[in-house]
Predict the 3D structure of the following.
Amino acid sequence: MQSTRTAAHVATVEPLSKEELHPSSLKFSEPPTVPTIDFGSFNSVTGDGAKHVADQIVKAALDTGFFYLSNHGVPQKDIDDMFELVTKRFFAKGSAHNAKYPYNPEINSGYLGIATERLNPNSDEQEYKEAVNIPKLNGRTARKEDFAPELVNNWELLTRFHRSAHDCLLRVLRAFGMGLKIPESAGGLDYFTSCHRYEESSADILRILWYPAIPADRNTKWTRAAAHSDYGSLTLLFQDSTGGLEALLRSGNHEPKWIPLPPRPGTIVVNTGDLMEFWTEGLVKSTAHRVVFPDGPAAHQDRYTIAYFGQPEDSTPLTTIPSEIVKGKVIQDARIGNGEALFRGPTSMSQERAMTALEHLRMRLSEIH
């Protein structure tokens, strides 16, 4: 993907209004709400129904970087079976058993025990959670011998769920292609999907998480997951009925606040990651979020979640997407002298070439492990 931002192109694009760039910025006196979007109308990518869904998704990505998705297409039976596997078979075996299949940082795969990960390198909080990362099951990375028998014995379910989650990811990415008005000549609806192919090498991860109940000897430094943003394109989150997820959302020019994102039956939570923010020059938000110990009876309950972290193919260059909407933002920032608002994106090398998706991920993972 090559950047098409040149002086000739810039001169022909009218800047977006403040309302178009940040549709919520002048409307919310209270903290913005995170919408539930019915994805069923996007089954056909033609017609007003699909366009309406795509516009809703892009608006949510601009406003908050988070939205709930109903009728997402991942079979409910597979979701239920996955949670049964997670709660009754895998984590039930205990940390000593699962630690025999440890995390491999070279491929971002395997088991991570309590307090072995620090999502916020600038915080001294300790994360009270266990997790296992499962790369794409396409024959390139994941090997059965690297995982506990409880997972290997359910490989068919894992493979089916991995694929279903990825299919959902692709459909949402197509909606972004439509909503961001990427021209057909540059890839159109398939601009993002063309660099998120399941059979190709990429760092997509299915992550299974267990947040144990508050320990009796809990100290003030324990948290479930410290404040962080996700590194990739999109994240799909499947939650149980226990809350705790919070996002740092802003209402207009007011100070941002931590807003709970409780489970909503029949939905998954979708959030946009750092690469989507970079691709869109900061137009789409990669919002900080965390998992806290809930108050009341829920504080004494375990929490289980399953997350699918979508990543572009390893060799994908991180260059600005060819969207007129994004170009409008770049012009707007330049004309009002808003240099700080322009998201510069990850860089640790000469600008002679763009950083690739894999280089960016390795840089970020080195900060937390």
Summary: The two ends are 30 Å apart (CA to CA).
